[in-house]
Amino acid sequence: MRQRIRAIHVTHALLKPAIHVLQRTLATHVQHAIRATLVLRKTRAVHVTLATRVLPKPTSTPMSLVIKEPACRALFLIVALVTQTACVHAKPLAAPDTVTIRGGEFLMGSNQAEREYAYLIDEAAYGHSRTRTGKWYDTERDRITTTTDSYNITVTPITNAQYKLFLDSTTHPAPDVDAATWKSYGLVHPFERTRRHAWNNNQPPPNRENHPVVLVSYEDANAYTVWLSSTLKENWRLPTEAEWEKAVRGTKGNIFPWGNTFDSAKLNSHDDGPFDTVAVGERSSPGPYGLLDGAGQVFEWVLTPNAKSAWVKGGSWDDSGCGVCRPAARHSRNKTLRHILIGFRLVKIQ
């Protein structure tokens, strides 16, 4: 039976802005799917595709394009375009997966015995005493019993895929750093190494969608929390140092998330890892609450108000030993820094 075909007229003045919205807000695979749908229907008299390069230049008089398509599909597609909505049912933004941390006491910080252990495992890994002579761990908080309220915290650091939803909905710049800025940081990593983590045209690096987002400053992380809170109508923010530490190590003051002995198989560090980020949770032994990547993988910004610098915690794929990967360890970094070793996770306040 021959299918009935109708012609639907859409003014170019309406269609072009709608296409622009699609290009800004839809995922690439959705745009490609729309193009593919129309191209496959060429034999059914589809005369144009959704690519701005094939549209005629606007004139002072609104132009009309004729799109011949099965009536129901054409109507749905064109109405969706003109009203600046997708031609697929958009799913509500899903909140990042979290675990609940109950309010109450926990052991925070370190004692002299733990710091000495950290120096010893560093020396065994590196073959030198640089962390000891630099007194890396001497300024950690002394071990105390303290308390937190209840909160939820993301199971893993925020990923590139999650961060992309934020960029697609805002004009916030994508994670990147230029050579001059990188040089001004005075870091040991060459600029060339940043390229595998840098974004291009608002797209994350290939095959790294599920890696933790890096090259994000403290303020970038805060901007994400503001957007997520507004979008979900919930209260999200960076964790305080106490919230982060309790969630990673539990209430009994574990030296590492999994216990009190270093095990290079249980985290992404330079000991046995690929010297790079990996997909979140891929190389991680869960802590007492089920958190992943609390040790190694990437350092994470924690809430540090009213200061130019902020604490980062957790160690990274670049570290060996891994004394700095202990939950009690802390590093101070300028809030403007965009580093290939630093990402973030969030808490949701009830």
Description:
The chain is an alpha+beta fold and 350 residues long. The protein has two domains: 6-82, no CATH class; 98-348, paralog of FGE (formylglycine-generating enzyme). The protein is built from nine helices and twelve strands. A four-stranded antiparallel beta sheet has the order 3-6-12-7. It has a four-stranded mixed beta sheet with strand order 10-9-8-11, with helices on one face. It is globular, with a radius of gyration of 25 Å.
The third-level CATH topology of the largest domain is: paralog of FGE (formylglycine-generating enzyme)
**SSE order:** EHHEHEEHHEEHHHEHEEEEE
Find the CATH superfamily of the largest domain. paralog of FGE (formylglycine-generating enzyme)
Total number of distinct structural domains: 2
Count the helices. How many? 9
The radius of gyration computed from the alpha-carbon positions, rounded to a whole number of angstroms, is: 25 Å
Number of strands: 12
Instruction: Just name the CATH architecture of the largest domain.
Output: Alpha-Beta Complex
What fraction of the residues are assigned to beta strands by DSSP? Answer: 5-15%
Rounded mean pLDDT is 82
The N- to C-terminal Cα distance equals 60 Å
Shape: globular
Helix content, binned percent:
25-40%
Helix- and strand-based class? alpha+beta
Please give the structural blueprint.
Layout: E1 6-11, H1 12-25, H2 28-40, E2 64-69, H3 71-82, E3 98-101, E4 104-108, H4 112-126, H5 130-133, E5 144-148, E6 151-154, H6 160-169, H7 179-185, H8 218-232, E7 236-237, H9 241-249, E8 299-301, E9 309-313, E10 331-334, E11 342-343, E12 347-348
